[in-house]
Write a structure and sequence with these properties.
Layout: E1 12-16, H1 23-31, E2 50-55, E3 58-64, H2 75-89, E4 92-98, H3 105-115, E5 121-126, H4 131-134, E6 151-152, H5 161-171, E7 188-193, H6 200-208, E8 212-214, E9 228-232, E10 235-239, H7 243-250, H8 259-268, E11 272-278, H9 285-296, E12 300-306, H10 318-329, E13 338-340, H11 351-363, H12 369-382, E14 396-403, E15 408-414, H13 421-434, E16 443-449
Parallel strand pairs: 1-3, 1-4, 4-5, 5-6, 7-10, 7-11, 11-12, 12-13, 15-16
Antiparallel strand pairs: 2-3, 8-9, 9-10, 14-15
Helix pairs in contact: 2-3, 6-7, 8-9
The structure holds guanosine-5'-diphosphate.
């Protein structure tokens, strides 16, 4: 199947710089077609400023931030506009300067704004049409911009352009992807887990139904051929291990390949699991086994109760009752949101995407040190830390977040003291109440320090 990736998903490079340094010429050199209107008159610009180019077999997106309007902005407005575009869109910024001139004061303003970006910035010196101009890149004044020496190129005659592209692409730190697709954003990886006949295949088809399905190998994922990438609202989602589900939905029904081992592997390979349960049947021990597999892997979790159309005489209380029943049967699930869908009629299925996005944010939630400090102080004020096995009363020195996915917290206490298990649970429960961690497990552990 030929693969088309939405343009916005490609790794993106933005060119910024003051007027007349040759942004358009550089842009056109990479497009290798004279799309733009270029002239020696400062301020001449054009109407299209985004293009795709290919380098060493891979596609990249190029943006000339040099504006599409003919209205003259103030310097400040111009810098703000360019830097905002670069920040929003690009994986790397090319800061283009003119080697035929010394650095201008306004370029220092540009540099100041660019130094605040997290995105890598490469200083490129244009108009190096001959070796004499090329040596201008060693002018120490360029270093005052706060980047490396400008890399000399001539956008007009092409010299140095290939070399600078190699450097740029290396600096973009994209995953190795020979022959694979490269995406700007890493997709979230999702597994669909449930016992046979709960409706996984039907749900999968409903989920991907309206979307573009890409079955080519994907960088960022390890087991590409089994996975399905879809792009929804410009965002990538990978459904792992869908080969079986896809095949089954086409050929045979009722045969489950792999069973528990397969489920185990799919959970390990995903960031988030959709646990699919059947609303029309009682929960079974098979559900219980799968729930155990899921909760011990500490991944994101959304519970999907399918076949909601088969439940007759529902009231607005029915979902609440079912959720309560589920959580009392399986308490470790209680952190997960529960949704009621009909995969067959597609009811509520598309809402799953925004829920997946939310849980993904929660999986990566990273709390500030001061936020945690205040949180812990107020908690200790409400309830003094309870003693574990140690002789002395524990004093909590700090609560710090050590990791995301899942959010992991370390409580430090003095050596030879110990904290009661129930107090860790108390911290965990309160973290959930104070911050949004819906759908993500959280881990809290103790470290003892010498003082
Ligand atoms: P899987 O084994 O989990 O992949 O389940 P399938 O997707 O093959 O579905 C099993 C059966 O349930 C099929 O006959 C589906 O048509 C049916 N089914 C799936 N989802 C729904 C639903 O939302 N409502 C109803 N009524 N039937 C469904």
């Amino acid at each position: 199947m030929p693969v088309t990736i939405p343009e916005k998903m490609l790794p993106t490079i933005a060119i910024v710089g003051r007027t007349n340094v040759g942004k358009s010429t550089f842009f056109n050199r990479l497009m290798e077609q004279k799309k733009a209107l270029v002239s020696d008159v400062a301020g001449t610009t054009r109407t299209s400023n985004v293009g795709i180019f290919k380098w060493r077999g891979e596609k990249y997106r190029l943006i000339d931030t040099g504006g599409v309007d003919f209205i003259k902005d103030t310097l400040e407005q111009e810098i703000k506009k360019q830097v905002t575009t670069a920040l929003k869109e690009a994986n790397l910024v090319i800061f283009l300067v003119d080697l035929k001139q010394e650095p201008l004061p306004q370029e220092k303003e540009w540099a100041k704004a660019l130094r605040t970006l997290k995105t890598p910035v490469v200083l490129v010196g244009n108009k190096a049409d001959n070796s004499k101009i090329r040596t201008q890149s060693h002018n120490p004044e360029w270093l005052e911009l706060g980047f490396d020496e400008p890399f000399p190129i001539s956008a007009a005659n092409g010299s140095g352009v290939g070399d600078v592209l190699d450097i740029i692409i290396q600096k973009m730190k994209l995953p190795k992807a020979s022959g694979k697709l490269r995406l700007k954003k890493s997709p979230i990886k999702i597994s669909l887990i449930g016992r046979p006949n709960v409706g996984k295949s039907t749900l999968f088809n409903a989920l991907i139904g309206e979307e573009r399905v890409i079955t080519s190998p994907i960088a960022h994922t390890t087991r590409e051929s089994h996975d399905t990438l879809i792009i929804k609202d410009d965002k990538p989602y990978v459904f792992v291990d869908t080969a079986g589900i896809r095949k089954k939905s086409k050929i045979s029904r009722g045969l489950e390949e792999g069973g528990v081992n397969q489920a185990n592997e799919s959970i390990v390979n995903s960031d988030l699991t959709l646990l699919v349960l059947d609303a029309s049947e009682p929960f079974t021990t098979q559900d219980k086994h799968l729930i155990q597999l899921i909760t011990e892997k500490r991944k994101g979790l959304i519970i999907v109760i399918n076949k909601w159309d088969l439940i007759k005489d529902k009231t607005s209380d029915t979902p609440v009752i079912i959720t309560k029943q589920l959580f009392s049967l399986f308490p470790p699930l209680a952190f997960a949101p529960v949704v009621f869908v009909s995969a067959l009629s597609h009811k509520n299925v598309q809402d799953l995407f925004s829920l997946i996005d939310r849980v993904n944010i929660n999986l990566h939630r990273n709390l500030e040190e001061t936020e945690l400090h205040n949180f812990m102080s107020s908690l200790v004020y409400r309830k003094l830390p309870t003693r574990g096995k140690g002789v002395r009363h524990p004093k909590i020195f700090a609560l710090r977040q050590m990791a995301v996915q899942p959010p992991t917290f370390e409580v430090t206490i003095k050596q030879k003291t110990s904290l009661h298990e129930s107090y860790l649970k108390f911290i965990q429960n309160n973290l959930r109440q104070a911050f949004d961690f819906e759908g993500t497990p959280i881990v809290v552990y103790v470290r003892k320090v010498r003082v």
